[in-house]
Amino acid sequence: MSGNELGEFIRSRREAITPDQVGLPTGPRRRTPGLRRSELATLAGISVEYLTRLEQGRDRNPSFQVLGALADALRLSTADREILHRTAKAMHGPGMCMFRAQPPSRTVRPTLRALLERLEPTPAVVLNRLNDVLAHTVAFERLTGPLGLLDGDPPNVTRHVFTDPRARAAYPEWDRVADEQVACLRTETTGNDPHAAAFIDELSLVVGAPFTSRLQGVPSPPPRTGVLRLVHPEAGELRLAYETLAVSADDGQRLLAYLPADESASTALDRLTGRRPGTLRAVAT
User: Fold this and answer.
1) Do residues 102 and 219 make contact, with C-beta atoms less than 8 angstroms apart?
2) Which of 93, 131, 192, 249 qualifies as a cystine partner to 157, CB 3.0-4.6 A?
3) Among 60-69, 87-96, 143-152, 264-273, which is the least confidently predicted range?
4) Percent of the chain at pLDDT exceeding 90
5) CA pair distance 5, 37, nearest whole angstrom
6) What digits encode the pLDDT tens for the residues 156-200?
7) DSSP assignments along 91-120, one per residue
8) Are 121 and 257 in contact (CB under 8 A)?
9) Cis peptide bond N-terminal to 121, omega within 30
10) What is the gyration radius of the CA atoms in the chain, in angstroms?
11) Distance from C-alpha of 251 to C-alpha of 236, rounded to nearest angstrom
């Protein structure tokens, strides 16, 4: 290990991308492989001197905003963005976001778990303020498991929407879903929450503009009820009415439940959950 993994990674990706890939002219007398430092610095909106310090390892604590700008300028893939995020996080050290704020809750009260059991066969889930999945009904697993939503450790709805390619196919109105996920994250967390800041930094770097552009507007609360269009690989397109209930002011948990919004969704959910037809009746929307 050289101790300058971050700088070496940035330099390697700068040398691997060609000027024409970022819309720059290719001159006949270029001696530098890939982009010049000055070119990358201009594209990322930082100084050449600062980029030089980063690549040489003389500055090892760039902000995630700077890293995000470099990732965008270098047209990094999702895999490379994740490598950049892990490398930068390791350089910052474990104390980068551990101030005195309480970490997001990960424990669900027994009474809330009992309530979830009584909601079967309704797809329902308990989320914390970062949209981590804390507990869910079996019906929720059968509905969202094939979409990859529960694959993470811990599963996280916002991360799934922005980073899992399956989410684009699952949500016909992906832009609206993405808007609501960011609105929810901004509403449920505060500006001095270092855990939320670290999560936002991660997505800003890994996802780039599709996530960061949604952070720039005036915050607005997400809808607590509505209808979600979902394309399921087994059941086809579903219209699901949802309700969001805050279940504790202390740990920022909320319960999200889905019901069929029409007879077609009612039949499909009954089939997915193995219930007799008519168990989950459609609700008027």
Assistant:
1) no
2) 131
3) 87-96
4) 52
5) 18
6) 999 999 999 999 999 999 999 999 999 988 888 766 688 888 899
7) HH-GGGG-SSSPPPP----HHHHHHHHHHT
8) no
9) yes
10) 22
11) 36
CB 17 within 8 A of CB 74: yes
Q: Which domains does the chain have, with CATH numbers?
A: 5-92 (1.10.260.40), 110-273 (3.30.450.180)
Q: Show Cβ contacts of residue 129 under 8 Å, excluding neighbours closer than 6 positions.
A: 104, 105, 188, 189, 193, 196, 252, 253
Give the ranges where the chain is alpha helix by DSSP (H): 5-16, 37-44, 48-56, 64-73, 78-92, 110-119, 138-144, 157-163, 165-170, 174-188, 194-207, 209-215, 263-273
Task: Give phi and psi for 34, each to the nearest 5.
Answer: 75, -140
pTM of the model: 0.73
User: Tokens for 28?
Assistant: 């006949």
Q: Is the CB of residue 243 less than 8 Å from the CB of residue 264?
A: no
The band of 110, judged by pLDDT with boundaries at 50, 70 and 90, is very high
One-letter amino acid at 92 equals: H
Q: Are 76 and 13 in contact (CB under 8 A)?
A: yes
Hey, what are 238's tokens? Answer: 């579903």
